[in-house]
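In the previous lecture we treated proteins in isolation. Real proteins rarely work alone, and many bind small molecules. This record shows how such a complex is specified: first the sequence, then the SMILES for coenzyme A.
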Amino acid sequence: MQPDTQHDKPFQLTMTVLMTPDKANFSGNVHGGTILKYLDEVAYACASRYAGSYVVTLSVDQVIFRQPVHVGELVTFLASVNYTGNTSMEIGVKVMTENIRDKTRRHTNSSFFTMVAIGSDGKALTVPPLDPQTPEEKRRFQQGQERRQIRRELEARYKALKKQL
Ligand SMILES: CC(C)(COP(=O)(O)OP(=O)(O)OC[C@H]1O[C@@H](n2cnc3c(N)ncnc32)[C@H](O)[C@@H]1OP(=O)(O)O)[C@@H](O)C(=O)NCCC(=O)NCCS
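The predicted 3D structure, ligand included, written as tokens:
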């Protein structure tokens, strides 16, 4: 398992992993936790390479496993820095799963990670501002900004709910 750093833009990263039998759960499909671990790793690598620093995971948005991933399939994680704040970055990861025998591909899930750059003093570090160029990059930036707002609203609602207990 190696990130493909040759063909991606500096804010993108692709990683492909073969789902070997050791990744199976009790039903014989790939364990959800295995996919979560790879998602976090690819988000880390994408954010750290972009920021040029160590990064930590601040949050992970809702992850929905739409379809099972089977042992023997090839899973590709397509990561991209969608949005940058001052010290935080939203990393979007799209998961494509390929049956290597019949060559069919399907989109099995997507998720959004918020990663924060950390300096050698252990404090949050300013990241290079993202400069979206293409219509797709601009759309992702805009939507990343909106999701940042939604996260804040959601956190406020969760806090209010906790107070009711
Ligand atoms: C991420 C962390 C360094 C942020 O620390 P902090 O003291 O809140 O730092 P700051 O106030 O400077 O915030 C840093 C960034 O995080 C964002 N942030 C912090 N708390 C947030 C929250 N609750 N919701 C959304 N964003 C938040 C801030 O907006 C800021 O982003 P910006 O600069 O782009 O605006 C700290 O919370 C931490 O170390 N968390 C643990 C991370 C970790 O170990 N992850 C792995 C878990 S096993």
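Summary for your notes: The first strand starts at residue 3 and ends at 4. Residues 56-58, 85-88, 116, 124, 151, 155 surround coenzyme A (CB under 6 Å).
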